[in-house]
Structure formats: structure tokens, C-alpha cells
Amino acid sequence: MTKTNFYRSANFKEGQEEDTFIEAKEVAAFVDFILSQRQGIVVTDVTIKPQRHMIVRK
């Protein structure tokens, strides 16, 4: 789960421990990494997720 305002109206939120969420800046850095690969590199699948899955009810 990404720690952003995307889920602000939901009745749940991400966990508090750092290994239970991903920050938007981390996703952006990964996208930048993919886009900066040399010509000829094809990225077919990407999965970005926290080490542990945790959702907390508000």
C-alpha cells in the first residue's frame, strides 16, 4: 500500500511500520530508474510492494 492521500476516504489506512507501506517518492524513483535504462531494454513486468502487507482500520 502506498502512503498517500489516495485512501483518505476509506475506512482503513496503511500500517505504521516502515516495512508495511511504500512512499510515493519511492515509486517515483523506481519509475525514473526504469525510464533511464538504455535503449533496447524492455521492462515487461514491475511489482512494487512493501515487505509486509498491513492494513489498519481507522
Structure description:
There is one protein chain. The protein is an alpha+beta fold. The chain has one domain. Helices cover 21% and strands 17% of the residues. It contains one helix and four strands, in the order E-E-E-H-E. The strands form two sheets. A two-stranded parallel ribbon has the order 1-3. A two-stranded antiparallel ribbon has the order 2-4. The two termini are 15 Å apart. The model has no long low-confidence stretch (mean pLDDT 91).
What's the SSE blueprint?
Blueprint: E1 2-3, E2 12-14, E3 22-23, H1 24-35, E4 55-57
Parallel strand pairs: 1-3
Antiparallel strand pairs: 2-4
Tell me about the biggest sheet? 2 strands, parallel
Which descriptor suits the 3D outline? Answer: elongated
End-to-end separation in angstroms reads: 15 Å
Q: How do the SSEs run, as a string of H and E?
A: EEEHE
Count of the domains: 1
Radius of gyration: 14 Å
Could you write a compact summary of the structure shown?
The protein has one helix at residues 24-35, and strands at residues 2-3, 12-14, 22-23, 55-57. The chain has 58 residues and is an alpha+beta fold.
Write a concise keyword list for the protein shown above:
58 residues, alpha+beta, two-stranded parallel sheet, 1 helix, two-stranded antiparallel ribbon, elongated
